[in-house]
Amino acid sequence: xxxxxxxxxxxxxxxxxxxxxxxxxxxxxxxxxxxxxxxxxxxxxxxxxxxxxxxxxxxxxxxxxxx
Length: 67
Known about the structure:
This is Cation transporter. The protein has one domain: Alpha-Beta Plaits, CATH 3.30.70. By secondary structure, the chain is of the alpha+beta class. 31% of the residues lie in helices and 33% in strands. The protein is built from 2 helices and 4 strands; from the N terminus they run βαββαβ. The model has no long low-confidence stretch (mean pLDDT 95).
């Protein structure tokens, strides 16, 4: 399993947490939002999911991914 931390802008309240984590989980990865730091820690199998796919589902939920 690969681990990475993604910087996310646009999280305005704690209700953003389940939206982001749910979207990441739906594509077969694990996500844990750190609201205070504006980050998402992710764990994923690179043979099944790429980091670019994780970033894309975060963007589709309306957040900005800082690269």
